[in-house]
Amino acid sequence: MEQNPVISRLAPTPSGYLHLGNALNFLITWQFVRQHRGKLILRIDDGDSTRSRPQFVEDIFRTLEWLELDWDLGPSGPDDFYTNYSQNSHSEKYFAVIEHLERTYSCKCSRKIIRKTFGSTIYGGSCRDKMVPFVKGRTAKRVIVDRPVYDAGSAFDLARAMGDFVLWTRDDTPAYQLVSLVEDETHGVTHIFRGEDLHTSTLAQKYLAEELDFSQFLQAQVVHHELIYGPDGIKLTKSAGAASLRDIRESGKDKSYVIDLLCPYLDRFREKLLP
Ligand SMILES: [Zn+2]
C-alpha cells in the first residue's frame, strides 16, 4: 500500500464556458490521479458570487461527461452542487478561518482609489495602521505581506508582486486565494496542477498557509502547466472569448479531437513530471 495516497482536485470556476486550457488541466490532473490510484475531487469554485452563473455550472458537468472524466468526491450534478456544495452558501466557514488571524487589517479603499494612489492594482498598504473598523460589505480584509515567500528554494518578493492581498472582498465574499487554500487544506489535497498564470497566486496561498499554519497545503506538490495560446499568440481565457469546449462539442467533435489537439502539451507535461 502506498504510504501517502494521492489526492487531487478539478477546481473550475463557473464564470464562463470552459476552454481548451481547462481541458488540458482536467486531463493532466485526471491522468495523474488515476495512474497513482488516488482520489479525485470535483470542486466548483463559485465563492466569487458576482461572476458565477448556473449555465457555467451546467457546462462543467457536460464537459466532464463529454471528456469521459470521472471523479470520486464532490457533486454529482448541478442540483447536487447547488444543494450541497456551493461555496456561496458556506461563506461563514471561510470567514471563521481568518476572523482571528492577527496579521490582517480592514481596508476601505476602492479599486479606483488604489489605482489612483499607487498607480497600479497592487495595494501599497495605506490602511495598515488606520485601524479601520471591519464592516462586511463595506470594507475588505487584507493580510500583511512583509516577508518573502520561497519558490523552489529562491526568495520571491510577494509584497512587490501582490502587496497586502485581499482575503475578504468589499462585496462581502471570500477571495479566491482564501477559498482555494481552505478547500485544499481541509480535503488533504496532496497534488495541485494548475496553469502557469496562477504561479503568483500559488505563492500568495503559500504565504497565507504559513500565516495560518496549514501544514497539509505546505506539503502539497504544486505543479504548473503551460497555458494554451491562440493563433494570435494570446492566452486563451474565458473573458477573451476563446473558442469554448462547448463550441467544439456542439460542432459534433468528440473527446479524441481534444486529445489530439492537446497531445503535445500533455507530452511536455509528462516530461516535466519525470524525476
Ligand atoms: Zn485601504
Automatic annotation (TrEMBL):
GO molecular function: ATP binding; glutamate-tRNA ligase activity
Occurrences of domain Glutamyl/glutaminyl-tRNA synthetase class Ib catalytic (ranges): 6-116, 161-258
InterPro entries listed in its UniProt record: aa-tRNA-synth_I_CS, Glu/Gln-tRNA-synth, Glu/Gln-tRNA-synth_Ib_cat-dom, GluQ/Sye, Rossmann-like_a/b/a_fold
SUPFAM superfamilies cross-referenced by the UniProt entry: Nucleotidylyl transferase
The keyword Nucleotidyltransferase is annotated on this UniProt entry: no
UniProt keyword list: Aminoacyl-tRNA synthetase, ATP-binding, Ligase, Metal-binding, Nucleotide-binding, Protein biosynthesis, Zinc
The keyword Protein biosynthesis is annotated on this UniProt entry: yes
UniProt cross-references to Gene3D superfamilies, sorted A to Z: HUPs (3.40.50.620)
GO CC terms in record: cytosol
Pfam families linked to this entry: tRNA-synt_1c
One BP term from GO: glutamyl-tRNA aminoacylation
Transmembrane segments annotated in the record for this chain: none
Similarity-based family: Belongs to the class-I aminoacyl-tRNA synthetase family.
Identification of the protein by name: Glutamyl-tRNA synthetase
Organism of origin: Desulfopila aestuarii DSM 18488
Source species taxonomy: Bacteria, Pseudomonadati, Thermodesulfobacteriota, Desulfobulbia, Desulfobulbales
